[in-house]
Fold:
Amino acid sequence: MMQAQRGRTQSQQQTIHAFLPLAFGVDALSRFVRNFGGLETTDLVAAAVFGLLGGCAVISFTLFAHALYRQRVDRVRDNHLERARALLAGGLIGENSTWASQFRKIPRAVQHQVMVDAGRALAGADRDRLIEMAGETDLLSLAERDCHSKLWWHRLPAARLFATIGGGTAVMPSLLDDPHRSVRIEAIRWAEKNPSHVQVPSLLPHLGSPDGIERAVTVMAVAAHRDAAVAPLASFITSQHGLGLQAALQAAEAIGDPALIAPSLAAMDDEAPPTRQALARFLANVASPAGEGPLMVLLRDQSSEVRVSAARGLAHLRIAAAVPMLAQLMADEDRDSRHAAGLALRAMGGPGLLTLRRVAHEPHPRRSRLAKAILRLPADATMEAHP
Amino acid sequence: MTFADVLHDFFIVVQIASILYFALANSFYGITMILATREVRRAIVESTNEDSYLLLGTRMSPTITVLAPAYNEAGTIEESIRSLLGLHYPELEIIVVNDGSKDETLDVLRDRFDLIPEPRLYEPDIPTKAVRGVYRSRTNPDMLVVDKENGGKADALNAALNLARGTLVCAIDADTIITPDALLRMVRPFLRDPKLLAAGGTLRIVNACVVREGWVRESHVSRRPLPGIQTVEYLRAFLFGRMGLNPIGGNLVISGAFGLFRRDAVLNTGGYAHDSIGEDMELVMRLRRAGKETNGPDRVISIPDPVAWTEVPSDLRTLGKQRARWHQGLGESLSRHKRMFMNPRYGLMGTVIMPYFTIVELLAPVIELIGIASILIGHFVSNVSLVWALWFFLFAYAYGLFLTLMTILLDELTFRMYPRIRDRALLLLWATAEYLGYRQLTVYWRLKGLIRWMTGTGSWGEMKRAGFKSSTEEPQVV
Structure:
């Protein structure tokens, strides 16, 4: 068989030489493959096949071994979880006085998980009792120690425990500057729930984080400080642009203090449309005469999203002086801007409706059609899913 | 030199070309396997370290509009919508489109969700078949129902897009079951990357699973060969195929069953193509192309989290139709955007990904067929060794099996979606059986799709329904 194959190989090589220039390359390749390591091609392929099948056998073995191992681990963990939940419930309602000593015997990862789950579900006096219970089991002191660990996977569960159930005032502020993103986020969440223990300036740098989730959590944390955040936020706004400024304006919107209007106006010139949009929303929310002029300027913004937000803001504030500009915006190229302008006029009542009726009879086809359509809407129609 | 010599050399050349093709394609698969493992590991570390419910407490999560087209789904629509209403997300709008159903779909919706007419200003960005009315649910105010004339899935999605208000839109199939925290998981990459255009989730097969009240309660692998083998296929496609393409920006497909897109980008590029048979892929390619051309967002990623469950065909006829249609759609989408092929202006997408999809994905059935035919013909007319061919087949089989088992192992080490030992055994069984008949059938179906695309036949009649009302200039109250 082998000899016959070798014979065929020789004859193939001879004919290939005479075939095409392409054949030279093919020949070289086939000769390389055939003579590699002094083996026949089939030997090489057979070796590869057996190698791969051996690999498949190893993978299959690993698959089942891992499955069996995990099944066992999960079973043990489920038992621990069930027991820990029962002990915690017994402790909470005061049925089991020795719960703490039994709870300590359960692996700490499970203790953490049960506490965090309970912390999410409880509030008020029950939450306070939960913190006490965490203290009774030494979980809080151990978590405080873990917060100083060099390993982020030790710091993270500890930070999550404090962020969910409370406590940790001595260690959590320092984690706001943690190098690991997830730990930082937990520390910021903690700061939102414990505003009296954190200085606003330590939170503000996180508003400029490239990570959207970190920014989102920080906005909520800054807003939770209410009046205490106004002065530092005002100075922060003046020093920022782009993402940081956008997030700062969102925090300002949540706080809604007129003192933030003046520093925020620098955002009118920001390059990013979402930042100007955030400014329009802030100005609409703060509802101060100081914001009316800038809102009308934003109605002419080059970005349609900004124009839409400005139109909605003006409708919210019912600024009659904006009526002519809104009527003009009804001829905008962008559909959302046109609609927002028309609906803003309708929401303004008297002067807006009069303008709509006038526009409906104008020769400008797009504006008049839109005005007619808006006037046909019933008075109680909810126009926008998300005004 | 005789004719027989020429023929003989021809077969040698064809076979060596087939081997080179095989080596190229499988090297690519090997590389994507390595990249996918890294990518899945990174995603797992991120998702286990991060509380996905964090976003529920913030006001900065982008609004998402779920677009759910429905056609003759009276039997299942209530359960599907209840599952959507149970999604955990702070800013959610759901738009169900009744695409001119001939059954009681609209009546069921009216009855179960207490619909009332919702007068809306309707000035569509994308032309669609006429919208007959818009309704809002009194029991679930975030839910809108659009009743329109029948125009196909793309048309229904476009009608929903015209009314959507979300920053992001999530297109789903009405029969897809989404996990409750799916949107919270899917939105995370959008918060991290402003250049992200779309994200696709990983789909799993629901056929043998236990579903109660709209949720998957127990996940199992089917004991029936067709759904079972497709489970293995989907695992490989989503967990290693698409995840491996993430790091090189190679994702050109987001499944129509579940994908999240930037609404403004979809509207700016004209929405779903009415005349496309593979509207999902075509949209993604168009979005990415527009992103590259305008220097806007152009990244598309796939996330490994199993976020949606879908039913797959369990008979050969339906499966064959589906696969032929997919391949036809692939050919059509690649041909529509052939301008990107080997065009350095489009970066790696033009120079690597488009050629890969064309040569390795689109032409694969042709090349496989040529390879098999040349061996058989070559054996009879020349002296091509069948023993060698058999070894080559075994090598291909072993390599394919190796990659599939690696994917199953990857799932085991990460998500462990099939916790029972029996399910793992079934996965191994179906992975082993896949190459023995099923694979050859898919070659046949894909060839059929390829021929339909080349000849312009197939279900085009259904898709070509023309006569859309050009109403972009005419605002109306519906």
